[in-house]
Write a structure and sequence with these properties.
Blueprint: E1 2-9, H1 13-25, E2 30-33, H2 62-75, E3 80-81, E4 85-89, E5 94-99, E6 103-114, E7 118-120, E8 136-138, H3 139-148, E9 156-160, H4 164-175, E10 179-185, H5 194-201, E11 208-210, E12 212-218, E13 225-230, E14 244-247, E15 250-253, E16 257-259, H6 262-266, E17 291-293, H7 304-322, E18 332-337, E19 341-345, E20 348-350, E21 358-364, E22 368-377, E23 380-390, E24 396-400, H8 402-405, E25 414-419
Parallel strand pairs: 1-2, 1-6, 2-3, 6-17, 8-15, 9-10, 9-15, 10-11, 18-25
Antiparallel strand pairs: 4-5, 5-6, 7-16, 12-13, 13-14, 18-20, 19-21, 21-24, 22-23, 22-25
Helix pairs in contact: 1-2, 1-7, 3-4, 4-5
Length: 421
């Protein structure tokens, strides 16, 4: 059993930022465990630009963004183990991991930060009829093939779902000479960022079919085509007579991301149904004392810059917990997701921890124009702002200042809601 002050599971953007932040706060006994063979996480295959505008005030590619944090980890001489799979974690913060070099390893940590990221929803979760033929990939898998391994999945492509990875792969496949026939979305709006819709679909005349889905897959050994139909906006069921057939050899799935919380469940951590990640307080501590969570394993973000900001907070508060300067003996107020709000994070706030601003984040449930975002403590409104447009593809971030937070002392709950005009 090896003792370590702070153990970070995941060496992607969240884990790296948390490690650097904890080090800068004074923690010197840190270990990062990463299951891939190099640090950097998913950013290694995201070769497009658009990263870093908030964090570094410059436009970077994914690998460039990751390398900035990797360089800081190396400069701080923070130890890390790659090709290491964590297979068990307990409520007592005992972690078991395995790799080829060291075999089975056991760690006893004073604090643990969960930064495992997320995974894509596969075809098996969609129940699309048709043969299990080759040529069907998640968008992230296709991205890895093209950007890291130099392999083209196909030449005639249909994309199911309009998540950001799918939108970016529509442009990338076009760059590589493939013909992207359509991007098909079940909902009446895209789940990706507006800039990606414009830069990846509109700029290349790729149609976005809203309120549509794939209802059949043709081809037994290799994909030959897909049948797409319009769906009823209320029931989400296909409308007879609206079918259209696309002859294609590749279907990319961009139908949502799922936080990787198998280890969280193993540790007995309470999970939030709306986000798929742990339930946390304003310090990003989970329901198990001394275990913190940040990044896409907590809730799926739209920008990696926000992942880094959140992870930096997790690293700093984890060190405060280790140093026994984190005040936890305070009344907690639950944060309720009201009308138009999905998965507000954090899910609870300690009354009395009002010396620093607290950031609330959520995704709108629908598209709202000229809407007001309100926060109420009991019956009292403590925050309000107007937004020109709110969409599910872009997270909403509210920074509650200390003078606002002091007003929740006598409240039984805090409600975040949207008032649509």
């Amino acid at each position: 059993m090896r003792n370590v002050d702070l153990l970070i599971i995941g060496g992607g953007p969240a884990g790296l930022a948390a490690a650097v932040s904890a080090y800068e706060q004074g923690c010197r006994d840190i270990l990062i465990l990463e299951r891939e063979d190099t640090l950097g996480g998913i950013l290694r295959q995201c070769i497009h630009n658009g990263f870093g505008l908030h964090t570094f005030q410059e436009e970077l590619t994914g690998p460039e963004y990751a390398q900035k944090y990797i360089d800081r980890v190396i400069a701080c001489q923070i130890p890390y183990q790659c090709s290491t799979m964590v297979i068990e974690i307990t409520k007592g913060k005992q972690v078991t991991a395995v790799n080829r070099s060291n075999g089975l390893q056991h760690f006893q940590a004073k604090a643990v930060i969960l930064a495992m990221g997320c995974r894509e929803r596969p075809r098996g979760a969609l129940a699309i009829p048709g043969w299990r033929c080759s040529g069907i990939y998640t968008a992230g898998t296709a991205q890895k093939f093209v950007n890291l391994e130099g392999i083209m999945p196909g030449q005639r492509v249909v994309i199911l779902g309009s998540g950001d990875i799918g939108l970016i792969m529509a442009r990338r496949m076009t760059f590589m000479g493939a013909k992207v026939l359509a991007c098909v979305e079940l909902l009446p709006f895209s789940s990706g960022l507006k800039r990606n819709i414009v830069q990846c679909l509109d700029d290349y005349d790729i149609p976005l079919l809203l309120n549509h889905t794939v209802v059949d897959i043709s081809g037994r050994e290799r994909l030959e085509g897909v049948t797409v139909a319009q769906v009823d906006p209320e029931t989400k069921l296909p409308i007879a007579g609206t079918e259209q057939y696309f002859a294609c050899d590749t279907l990319l799935l961009s139908v949502g991301l799922i936080p990787e919380n198998e280890l969280s469940r193993m540790a007995g951590i309470e999970l939030c149904g709306a986000t798929g990640g742990p339930t946390v307080d304003e310090t990003l501590q989970t329901s198990v004392e001394g275990i913190f969570s940040c990044g896409n394993v907590l809730h799926v973000h739209d920008l990696v810059d926000f992942v880094s900001e959140e992870a930096e907070k997790a690293g700093a508060t984890a060190w405060r917990y280790i140093a026994d300067t984190l005040n936890q003996d305070l009344k907690t107020v639950p944060v309720i997701s009201g009308f138009g709000v999905s998965g507000a994070v954090p899910q609870k706030i300690h009354v009395g921890n009002a010396d620093q601003p607290i950031t609330l984040m959520f995704r709108p449930k629908n598209v709202y124009q000229n809407a007001k975002v309100c926060v109420t403590a009991g019956e009292k409104e403590i925050y309000r702002r107007t937004s020109r447009i709110l969409t599910p593809g872009e997270m909403v971030s509210l920074k509650l200042k200390p003078e606002v937070l002091r007003q929740i002392a006598d409240a039984d709950d805090l409600t975040v809601k949207v008032e649509a005009s």
